[in-house]
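Progress note, sequence design subtask.
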């Protein structure tokens, strides 16, 4: 059966594009080979944390310096108006899926998994930030037997921000000592008030705020944290853990469920083995030989880091599913680790300003678009910009695809 759009990958940008296309009334099919990089993403929306001129200089107003980025950067291709529209739209969607993100118009400092302060543009209600805990005394929870939360390191770094900490050892519900399993145990906890009442005596009376590792549930974390605040009588916030990221998994699950409720077709655990391009028609085959047809394709498969692009034995990157032209500053070599790491991040499929790729040496494809980490000319690690670029390019690709599909109807 033919759909209007096929989206390759289950990255944040692909989910954004799929939801936006569904809002425009188009049929959508997503094909991915497993969970995307949201499983490794900290909480919040990072738009641009560090200056393009100095990666140690924190940016206060990220949207004000978009014009200082290189013309080839994805933000410059999307444009400031579409970036603003995409972020406003995402804030609305986040509320609908009960993953509410708040944007104040400037970067805040969020607490990272190691306690470092990281600039973030959009934050959630229970996300620990310096603004929420600075100058206070925090009870820092350590679940016994749990190793994915370096609590001593977090305590040291928080002390540098003026936050006093007291580490509190707590027994987790059930026998789980792994992130996703711990979150599931909290979801299944029948008497949350009783659980927090039992640990109340362990909390110092002088504590102003509770800091839990971000594993307080996948589906019912709002209920769990509300119960904790009610019983303990103070704000209860979450600090990121080492991967996998439960907040990222929450967001992926919520967006995926939202899509399924909108009758989009989602195929997980399936890669692309081949494709055929024709005028206004694309056919793809998955790893099981199943054939899917659409008017256009959006490629959001996470680039090299998530297996969307291949690296040959010479360190050269290729896009093998569709034959799209790639950009690479230099081959990836183990002898030049620093330079190769940067080259790895800024490698991707070359596109025009409408995010359309070139294929097999021909012109830019009218019916294909590329988003997120599959795009080149940006370094998410140095810029602290991953979610912002994914939201902006996912939105822009959907809008450009909408224009293309409308032109088919007019013709």
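Output:
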């Amino acid at each position: 059966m033919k759909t209007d759009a096929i989206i390759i990958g289950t990255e944040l940008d692909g989910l954004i594009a799929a939801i936006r296309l569904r809002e425009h009334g188009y049929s959508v099919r997503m094909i991915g080979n497993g969970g995307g990089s949201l499983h490794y993403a900290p909480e919040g929306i990072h738009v641009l944390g560090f200056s393009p001129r100095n990666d140690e200089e924190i940016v206060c107003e990220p949207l004000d310096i978009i014009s200082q980025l290189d013309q080839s950067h994805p933000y410059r291709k999307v444009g400031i108006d579409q970036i603003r529209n995409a972020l406003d739209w995402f804030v609305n969607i986040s509320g609908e899926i009960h993953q509410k993100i708040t944007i104040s118009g400037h970067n805040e400092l969020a607490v990272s998994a190691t306690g470092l302060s990281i600039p973030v543009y959009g934050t959630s209600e229970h996300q620990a930030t310096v603004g929420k805990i600075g100058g206070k005394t925090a009870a820092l929870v350590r679940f016994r037997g749990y190793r994915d939360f370096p609590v001593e390191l977090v305590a040291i770094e928080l002390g540098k921000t003026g936050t006093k900490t007291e580490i509190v050892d707590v027994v987790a519900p059930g026998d789980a000592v792994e992130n996703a399993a711990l979150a599931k145990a909290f979801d299944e906890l029948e008497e949350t008030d009783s659980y927090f009442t039992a640990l109340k005596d362990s909390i110092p009376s002088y504590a102003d705020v509770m800091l839990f590792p971000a594993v307080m549930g996948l589906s019912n974390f709002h209920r769990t944290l509300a119960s904790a605040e009610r019983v303990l009588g103070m704000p209860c916030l979450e600090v990121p853990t080492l991967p996998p990221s439960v907040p990222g998994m929450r967001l992926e699950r919520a967006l995926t469920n939202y899509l399924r409720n909108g009758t989009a077709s989602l195929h997980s655990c399936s890669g692309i083995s081949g494709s055929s391009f024709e005028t206004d028609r694309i056919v793809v085959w998955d790893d099981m030989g199943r054939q899917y047809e659409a008017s256009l394709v959006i490629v959001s498969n996470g680039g090299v880091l998530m297996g969307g692009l291949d690296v040959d034995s010479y360190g050269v990157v290729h896009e093998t599913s569709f034959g799209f032209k790639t950009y690479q500053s230099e081959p990836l070599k183990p002898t030049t680790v620093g330079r190769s790491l940067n080259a790895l991040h800024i490698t991707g499929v070359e596109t025009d300003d409408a995010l359309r790729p070139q294929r097999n040496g021909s012109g830019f494809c009218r019916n294909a678009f590329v988003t997120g980490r599959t795009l080149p000319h940006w370094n998410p690690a140095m810029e602290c910009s991953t979610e912002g670029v994914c939201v902006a390019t996912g939105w822009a690709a959907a809008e450009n695809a909408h224009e293309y599909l409308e032109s088919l109807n007019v013709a």
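The chain has a mean pLDDT of 92. Work on this subtask will continue into the next period as scheduled.
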